[in-house]
Amino acid sequence: MAESSWLERPGLDKAAGEEFLREAFQVLLDEAVRKGTDVTEKVCDWKEPQELRELLDLELRSSGELPEQLLERCRDVIRYSVKTCHPRFFNQLFSGLDHHALAGRLITEALNTSQYTYEIAPVFVLMEEVVLAKLRELVGWSSGDGIFCPGGSISNMYAMNVARFHRFPESRQKGSWALPRLALFTSRESHYSIQKGAAFLGIGTDNVHLVGTDERGKMIPEELEKEIQRAKAKGAEPFFVCATCGTTVLGAFDPLDGIADVCQRHGLWFHVDAAWGGSALLSSKHRHLLAGIERADSVAWNPHKMLTVGLQCSAFLLRDTSGLLQRCHGAGATYLFQPDKFYDVTYDTGDKTPQCGRRVDCLKLWLLWKAAGTEGLARRVERAFAFTRYLAEEVKRRDGFQLVLEPEFINLCFWFVPPSLRGREGSPDYWPRLGKVAPAIKERMMRKGSMMVGYQPHGARVNFFRQIVTNPAVTKDDLDFFLDEIERLGWDL
What is the pLDDT of residues 413-459, one digit of tens each? Predict the structure, then answer.
């Protein structure tokens, strides 16, 4: 009887749950949104791992906690997390917070559906179709296909898999045994996901041919031609070329028309990794950077980066209209994709991807686009370019700051040379000592919590800073503070 009575009542307290949500949303608004975007607050409250474990009390126990304790847990999670929406967070290719996109993310979480069939995600199946069509239109295609993916790395892997299937349809069933030794080509500056994808797909990293680049990090089409000829001479079968629009460190854009000519000459699949640089297509002033992208067979584009959509929002776009994605990845699971449903089953798009459950990633971009319009998104892109131009001029004007190269995109790469090293460029220890400056400044800024910016070595170049502005909340004052703070933190090094 006791068990029967227990089953007659809901297993949770809806009223208490809604009250907790109201209070949790207030914590979210106060601590993450308001304080997280306030320049007077810290970007991060740095703690070493052991201290952070103790502060958070991460242990999971047999009995639950009271709502007051849980709300304090929420505050702690926010307090000790990095505020990527802060106007002085410049550490990644993504930053900032768009309130409309955040609303879309919250609605996505509340509805908790999987975007594989029209029957459980009717709104989002139609919405994804519209958003992908708009992205393809900006690429320059009037038709095509596509899918939202869990990140740009996966988009690049999908491109390799689809290209292999297109060239060798039997590979889907027979695997690598049915294939010759494949060869794919990408620049030395390309994203590491190309190497990872080749390993994951069984192509092998030895069969990734890295093509030479010029001094700005752009692939040289003539070098691509030579690499293809070398691969053929060794008995390999070229099938795929990946160009990059917006390399991760230098922000370089490969010459797409020249690469497309080589691909066309050899009958190779032409993929463009525009995960970072694709959003420049929205701006009439800057879309020339991607001239020739309409000649690609596939494109990867991450709106979650430059457009402040929020993680994650990554589109894989195809020019193909023959159903290649479905044929390459489809498995026809009969418990999901029944052919005798009462509606048009072509709207059951989930079989286009190796995933089963698939997160809704279109709503946040759609809602942002509805709020800002294409013109508003273009202004956001142009503002980022304008800030980078301002910073570049300031770097050139200030003592102790040295550009790595003039920025083509919004990647601003520079060294800070402390007074102890100025005028010593000819000394044998100059570059090794300069290479230690950026890591030391980075540690100081994080312990202080004043801002965050990335650094890295690059080829023969020692560590330098890579500054990125994508946050529309950033102002000129934030950028002046950024350069002043670099100087303050590194003056005595």
Answer: 999 999 999 999 999 999 999 999 999 999 999 999 999 999 999 99
Question: What gap in Å lies between CA 416 and CA 413, rounded to an integer?
Answer: 10
DSSP state of 97: -
Query: What whole-number distance in Å separates Cα of residue 92 and Cα of residue 310?
Result: 13
Residue at 6: amino acid letter: W
Query: Model pTM?
Result: 0.96
CB distance 142 to 149 below 8 Å: no
How is residue 42 written in tokens?
Answer: 């810290």
Residue 274 and residue 156: Cα distance in Å, rounded?
A: 10
Q: What is the 3-state secondary structure (H, E, C) of the chain?
A: CHHHHHHCCCCCCHHHHHHHHHHHHHHHHHHHHHHHHCCCCCCCCCCCHHHHHHHHCCCCCCCCCCHHHHHHHHHHHHHCCCCCCCCCEECCCCCCCCHHHHHHHHHHHHHCCCCCCCCCCHHHHHHHHHHHHHHHHHHCCCCCEEEEECCHHHHHHHHHHHHHHHHCCCHHHHHHHHCCCEEEEEECCCCCHHHHHHHHCCCCHHHEEEECECCCCCECHHHHHHHHHHHHHCCCEEEEEEEEECCCCCCCECCHHHHHHHHHHHCCEEEEECCCHHHHHHCCCCHHHHCCHHHCCEEEECHHHHCCCCCCCEEEEECCCCCHHHHHHCCCCCCCCCCCCCCCHHHCHHHHCCCCCCCCCCHHHHHHHHHHHHHHHHHHHHHHHHHHHHHHHHHHHCCCEEECCCCCCCEEEEEECCHHHCCCCCCCCHHHHHCCHHHHHHHHHHHHCCCEEEEEEECCEEEEEEEECCCCCCCHHHHHHHHHHHHHHHCCC
Q: Tokens standing for 116?
A: 């594989």
Name the DSSP letter for residue 31.
I
> pLDDT averaged over the chain?
96
Which pLDDT score is estimated for 177? Answer: 86
Q: Which residues contact residue 99 at a Cβ distance below 8 angstroms, ignoring those fewer than 6 apart?
A: 33
Residue type, 49: P
Residue 138 has pLDDT above 60, yes or no: yes
Vertex 465, ends 32 and 35: CA angle to 5°?
15
H-only helix segments in 332-466? 363-397, 430-434, 437-448
302: amino acid identity, one letter: N
CB 125 within 8 A of CB 147: no
pLDDT tens digit sequence for 386-413: 999 999 999 999 999 999 999 999 999 9
Instruction: Tell me the Cα Rg of the chain.
Output: 25
